[in-house]
Amino acid sequence: xxxxxxxxxxxxxxxxxxxxxxxxxxxxxxxxxxxxxxxxxxxxxxxxxxxxxxxxxxxxxxxxxxxxxxxxxxxxxxxxxxxxxxxxxxxxxxxxxxxxxxxxxxxxxxxxxxxxxxxxxxxxxxxxxxxxxxxxxxxxxxxxxxxxxxxxxxxxxxxxxxxxxxxxxxxxxxxxxxxxxxxxxxxxxxxxxxxxxxxxxxxxxxxxxxxxxxxxxxxxxxxxxxxxxxxxxxxxxxxxxxxxxxxxxxxxxxxxxxxxxxxxxxxxxxxxxxxxxxxxxx
Length: 282
Fold this sequence. Notes:
With 282 residues, the chain is α+β, with helices and mostly antiparallel strands. It has eleven helices and seven strands. The relative contact order is 0.08. Residues 248-252 and 273-282 have low confidence and may be disordered.
C-alpha cells in the first residue's frame, strides 16, 4: 500500500490531480480505517499511470472514464482521439502551406480580398483553415468557466452566509449547484463543473472568487499550444484581438492605421471602465 505522497512520487502526478481523478470517479482508493487516509494499491498506481498516458494524448476525462467503465472501449477511444489529432494536423499543415503563398513583406501591399478568395478556393477543394473568431470564443467561454467572481449581498462572515451567497448566485444565473464541501473555502459543482471558492475584501465590500478544480474546462477541443495562444489573446481582451485582425486583414494605409488605433483606444477605455466596476484586487 502507498499513501498519496508515495503515489505522487511513483507516478509523477501531483496530489491535487490524483484527488481530482478520484473526485471524477477514475480512482477509488481504499481508506485506512484508523486514520481515514487514502491507501493506493498497485492496481491504483497502474490506473494513475494509464490516466497519465491518456491525458498526455489529450483524451478527454469523460472518455477516459468510459474506458475504465468499459475496458473494451479503449481501441475506439484511441481511434477517436487519433482522428481528432489528425484533423488538427491537417489544419496546421494547410495553414503552414498557405503562409508560404504570402509573398508580401509590407502590410500596405497585402491584399486581403485576393488571399481570402484563394482561401475559399482551397477550402472548396478540402483544405481546412481554422476559424479564428470561433476558436477565440471557445477559449473565452472556457476561461470564463475556469474562474469568475461576484459580489454577494452579505459579508459572508460564516459558512452559512457563504453557502447562501453561492446558492443565490446559481439561482440568479439559472445554474445547477451542488455544495460538496462547506466552510470558508467551500467546494461545489456548477452545472457539473467542480469549483473551490474563497472570500476577500475590496473597497466595495466582500468579493467571492471561484476557480475550477478541473484540469481542463469543458468547451474546447484543440491542441494545448493552440488553446494557450488564444488564452493569451483572451487575456489581452477582445479589443486587442480585433485590432490584430483589423491590422492584418484591412489596414492598408496610414489613415486606416490611425482609425484602428482610435478604435482600440476607445475599446480600451471601455475595458478599463468595466475592470474598475468589477475590480478584483484592491
